[in-house]
Amino acid sequence: MWPETNCYVDLWIEVLNALGLPPQAMLGFTLTQDCEGDQFTFFKVPLEDLETLYGITCTELAIYDRVESHIATQIGRGRLCLVEMDSYFMPDTAGVAYRIEHGKTTIAVNQLDMAARRLGYFHNGGYFELAGEDFDGLFQMAATPDALPFLPYTEFAKFPGTAPSEPAIRAAALDLLPKHFNRRPDSNPFRAFSKDFPAQVEALAERPFGFFHKYAFNTLRQFGANFELAASHFQWLYPDGQLEDARLQALRISEVAKTVQFQLARAVSRKKFDALSAALDPAADAWDAMMGVLEARIG
Description:
Blueprint: H1 7-18, H2 47-54, E1 57-60, H3 67-76, E2 80-86, E3 104-113, E4 118-123, E5 126-131, H4 133-138, E6 154-158, H5 166-181, H6 189-204, H7 210-237, H8 244-270, H9 281-298
Helix pairs in contact: 2-5, 6-9, 7-8, 8-9
């Protein structure tokens, strides 16, 4: 339902898949997503889960020299660098951000050729390359001497010599699931969001329409994608169907996000907001039912 989730999780899905490892194993953290008032949690895999499941150590990379120099060093050591970059210079975002607007997004740099000004990187749902002017723009090659330094947040991933087996990964994921369940929100996040949703949309209607996409991405799209991934986790973790009811409820939440996104667009266009007060009720009911299934099975 959601071909792309958010840049960080999509990136890890692609990297793990490229390594021949099951990305579904890491998705137990989706149970912890909450309503944060003006947005839903921008869900990210905890770095300690990557180490527990796959033996991958990921930590911050200090940037004190040119960014590309640090990246080149780490690539030479067999590491992968995760860097926050400007999507304005990334051709894979054509039609959305490329040469349209500046935006922060995370990529994983796998190949760097300074002489050819070429970059190979994981981003969203795929693997891409860029070169030439886009390379120069991404690394701010034309910045003047008095310009602010380019200091993006950067992580680097170190991989084990031998990857764990899938049975070992499954056992680790089974151990992590109750821990994430115990970190779930104290109260239903959709009932909390429903209280503010109509007023937020009414304010949204006064903004330029382009702002609609930013709001939808950080609210409806975040929880829709999050719980679709939760459904994938339940299915992978228990292929015998022990969490089938939880999987169906997670998919229901994801479906509601799709439906409400269309309702949101109509409400903004027509400036009629009353119907939105109950629009999220099916998602709230599904969240309660999903957590009830998990409580019975693993609580």
